[in-house]
Amino acid sequence: MYKLYGTVRSRAFRVLWMLEELGEPYELIEAGPHHPEVLALNTSGKIPVLVDGDAVITDSSAMLTYLADKHGKLTSPAGTVDRAHQDALTHTLLDEFDSILWTAARHNMKYLPKEHQMPEIAASSKWEFERNLGRLADRFSGPFLQGDSFTIADIVATHCLNWALVADFPVSDKTLRSYAKEMREREGFKRAFAHLKD
């Protein structure tokens, strides 16, 4: 059984959703950043952390790739052109969506020391996010990001789109808003989201 350390309101959700889609048994250990149990596994204190037997894996995108490859699902096979396209898309999402959302959050949610906070960075972050969203919309043909196959790229994209909506970032493209809504209707997403506590 996998053990996942993290919270639903973090990137751990991506891994929760992945595990639900795979139908693999797991235990969620609710632990925030720098929790003693997390620090014992990851000296940076960052979440999520995935434990598989004696192996400890950090970074949510690494976890998604590991799980997809191990179980042969939600991914194109390694060494194929389709996999190269999938990896390129996933890395683009991490670079052009996740990193922008996280930069804004660090300044607006006081993750940084006060003397290094620049809340005004949100305006340029929102502009850049929407520009990148337009680029993604231009290449979207549906029903999933890579056509007919639901992959880890869809998990990352949906998580970022949902994060953007909660953070009041512009998600004006109707096609991608509809896409995100459809992804939230997946049973795996619903089961993962059910872990959220009030």
From TrEMBL:
Q: Which N-terminal residues, if any, form the signal peptide?
A: none
Write down the PROSITE patterns for this protein, in alphabetical order: GST_CTER (PS50405), GST_NTER (PS50404)
Q: Which Gene3D superfamilies match?
A: 1.20.1050.10, Glutaredoxin (3.40.30.10)
Q: Pfam families from the entry? A: GST_N_2
Residue ranges of domain GST C-terminal in the record? 79-198
Residues forming the GST N-terminal domain are 1-75
Against PANTHER family, the record matches this protein to:
GLUTATHIONE S-TRANSFERASE GSTA (PTHR44051:SF8), GLUTATHIONE S-TRANSFERASE-RELATED (PTHR44051)
Name the chain's protein.
Glutathione S-transferase
User: What is the organism of origin for this protein?
Assistant: Parasedimentitalea maritima
Phylogenetic lineage: Bacteria, Pseudomonadati, Pseudomonadota, Alphaproteobacteria, Rhodobacterales
